[in-house]
């Protein structure tokens, strides 16, 4: 899909141009035919009028009027048909242009995605990620990495838009997060750096709902900026903490350290954390059943065996929505806190 070229556009444009010229030629010929017919009929009627007397003298004029009306109706029908054909031709040309632009955007998005994948840890030991994009490129971004000093970082971001619009925002998010996390910076520094850079880069009306999670030997710091509630549960599935969004999504306004809202906790036994984008918990299934936060809470309320919970969530979601159209990007991350 991403590698298709837009080569047929030129040839299609030539075909559309030739068709347009033929239609103009046909229109001229039909108009000439109507005029010639009317002229010839008028001459014949005039000659017949000179040969006839009484009531019959009106017959040629009546026939002439009927012929003229028929010709006008024929011309009107032809003109309407030609107008529709021209309209369809213009729509076809616009469709070709839109498809070509879409292929170009997809290639650009793919390049950005490849760059993000190149700098991301492909097999993080502390996090499991499941994503289901709406289009070829997801507006959601999920990255897990480990710093040189052993701290484990996870990011889940939901950027405004889809496709190339989301890709343009995903690139700086990925780069900044990777650079700051690899250095083992505190979450508050990562939040300020990401937010203030995005506030400068993103156009008006664009923002990035984000969750940043850092864990280090059980000590956990979380910033939830615009995402649904983040769930923290123990190995038995008991819900231990719920981290609500207390921070504006990134990119809306410049912030200072005093503006950052963080959740911090020390867990002495293994715990699991679940962060999702709103595409998951706003999904309506085939039978109008909604996959909401209550559904998610019930699915994580099981004893943990590896990544069995995220697998159960995925299977339940796909079973619920197997015949329903997808309306948004969907992402969930499971973070292991030891």
Highest CATH level, the class of the largest domain: Alpha Beta
CATH-derived architecture of the largest domain? 4-Layer Sandwich
Strand arrangement in the largest pleated sheet: 1-12-9-6-7
First-last Cα distance: 41 Å
- Report the sheet-strand fraction: 15-25%
Biggest beta-sheet profile: 5 strands, antiparallel
The overall strand count is: 12
State the fourth-level CATH superfamily of the largest domain.
PPM-type phosphatase domain
Give a description of the structure.
This protein has 338 residues and is α+β, with helices and mostly antiparallel strands. The chain has helices at residues 8-51, 59-119, 163-182, 187-201, 278-281, 293-300, 308-320, and strands at 127-132, 140-146, 152-159, 208-216, 219-225, 230-234, 239-243, 263-266, 271-276, 283-284, 290-291, 330-337. The strands form three sheets. A five-stranded antiparallel sheet has the order 1-12-9-6-7. The protein has a five-stranded antiparallel sheet with strand order 2-3-4-5-8, covered by helices on one side. A two-stranded antiparallel sheet has the order 10-11. The two termini are 41 Å apart.
Sum this structure up briefly.
With 338 residues, the chain is α+β, with helices and mostly antiparallel strands.
Task: Spell out the key features of this protein.
alpha+beta; Phosphatase 2c, domain 1; 2 domains; five-stranded antiparallel β-sheet
Helices and strands, with pairings:
Blueprint: H1 8-51, H2 59-119, E1 127-132, E2 140-146, E3 152-159, H3 163-182, H4 187-201, E4 208-216, E5 219-225, E6 230-234, E7 239-243, E8 263-266, E9 271-276, H5 278-281, E10 283-284, E11 290-291, H6 293-300, H7 308-320, E12 330-337
Antiparallel strand pairs: 1-12, 2-3, 3-4, 4-5, 5-8, 6-7, 6-9, 9-12, 10-11
Helix pairs in contact: 1-2, 2-3, 3-4
